[in-house]
Amino acid sequence: MKLIGLTGAIGSGKSSVSALFARKGAVIIDGDGIARQLQQKGSAVLQKMVDEFGDVLLESGELDRTKVAQLVFSDPEMLKKLNAIMHPAIGSEIMRLIAEYMDSDKIVILDMPLLVENPREGLSGLVIVDVDPEVAISRLVQFRNMNEDDARRRMASQASRDERLKVADRVIDNSGDIDALTPQVDEVWDWFATLPNAQQGAGALSKKSN
User: Percentage of residues in the chain with pLDDT exceeding 70?
Assistant: First the structure.
């Protein structure tokens, strides 16, 4: 198995890149998807969030994601509390999924928004999806109906563009359309074949993480 980290700022279009890799046969471990599963109605993680943050549920009993975002992205201490609940649970599920493919010949993409902020051990390579921050903000407002101030707060809570680019093994520029994106994904896919296989323990949270 080759374990590839894939990350980028909010609004970078990381999911589009991930989908193109999936079409080529990659196994996608989706950090955001895992988080949503862990936060499902009735889950232990959701109960911990209610215990910590109070009334963050919709009438249906499901998580009010908008309310949580408003709470944590305007208050660094609240964000730390959320991370303290979510990161261990997400990490455990990631390691379980990686173990399933460790002895295979698969390309496994660890698609996570905070891989620079919380690096993981033993990745075969790290791919950064890059876009100008103002373009990302515009996309979030236009396509995800996000308030601009909210989008900027979320982006400010992440690593800077320069911090991501400094640690990238490969950079995919997603400032254009799908026709500009596809050949870059093809080139990076070919690069994967040159990388070493992941070793036991790959994917564990790095000791360098905050």
Answer: 99
